[in-house]
Batch of 3 targets.
Target 1
Amino acid sequence: MKEEQDYIKDIAEIRSMMERSSKFLSLSGWAGIMAGLYALAGAYIAHNLLEFNPDELFYASPNLANVVWLAIGILVLALVTAIYFSKRKADGNGENIWNATSRRLLSSMAIPLAAGGVLILVLLAKGLIGLLASLMLLFYGLALVNAGRYTIPEVRIMGFVQIALGLVSAWFVEYGLLLWAVGFGAVHMMYGIYMYFSYER
């Protein structure tokens, strides 16, 4: 009986090692929570201080350049925060954050994000501002679905939620900024809280 228990324990350890080597498990719930807070703050500033609220496909705003810089700032802040918390978690687990699995994870996200980024720049130049929120959600969702193969399954689920919000936003253009805040703000915070209580606490 004892030999059988040892055998089962060995199999469980081998399975755990294989999973750790094939999946990136250092994603932090705090990174998701902070990214959500940044997004909500950015949406508030864009709507209330910069008076930016696209309600039709062709939309013009005197504050467009400021909104673009605000979006870039939020993106950089979210990336730096994600790297910081992920590295801290990896260090705590005695792992190297930059390994073959994390490289596969990033490369799987790169193509949809790069394609979406270029398309968004084209639409910006054409004045189709009303579609930006929708496309950001869609391409980010596609990147998460791709990345879900190399990390925890909840990332893939969040990707499908972002895609759904992006499609709704494409139809209801006037609610684009609100749906953007829901996707990048509320959904990220819910994901982060779930991650924290499920994997970190």
Note: The chain has seven helices and no strands.
Target 2
Amino acid sequence: MAHHDPDLDRIFQALSDPTRRQMLARLGQGAVPVSELARPTGMALPTILRHLGVLEEAGLIATTKSGRTRLCQARPETLAATADWLSQQRALWEARTDRLEAFLATLEDDDADQPRD
């Protein structure tokens, strides 16, 4: 496993912003135009476009232009890569805590075998 994966870095950086997470949540319901993504945020269009640029660069969304409308859609396969990394980390830490728990159990057993004063 790579210790520094630039793709994962970009994904987690994109997900670190609540506005971008809100946009992804909305896009989870289906593709929408940029104006519909911007409406609940109350932000100016250039700010929204910067957020969308970060999401698109991370591979979390794709945009297509049809006439004067830019349509955004989520790319859930990119989030799957993130879920795989998180799953690996969870397995690693669960194995470590299991070994610690087993070690502590042996210490308790050794302590129980010692004569009391």
Note: The chain has a mean pLDDT of 91.
Target 3
Amino acid sequence: MDFYQNAYMNLPGVSAEELGFLKQATNGLDENQLKSFFVVYSTKRKNPNDILLLAVIGFFGFAGIHRFVMGQVGMGILFFFTGGLCCIGTIVDVINYKTLTFEYNQKMAYEAFNIVKIGGQFY
């Protein structure tokens, strides 16, 4: 097991599915690019437990804050003004928080990969 696979395992709330995706997404990067990818990805990544906590806060007055945090401003505004789509949307998001977070983290991995491929080094 190499250093970067261990580094990914230290990310908070990382799942086996995410580890597999990251291994596949970073296939072909050299050592310096892997370091840069890890730095960029770890700063952009969201912890699934944080998203769950923010979604639960939606039941107590600020529905949609988890959508704002994940960059979905339109859905955040919709959730805010409809009370989490009458709490049904918030309940669905509390159930599906891992999927929502994984999809967000996939987008951030692609962004980090593109930044590294363009030539950015962040270590």
Note: The two ends are 22 Å apart (CA to CA).
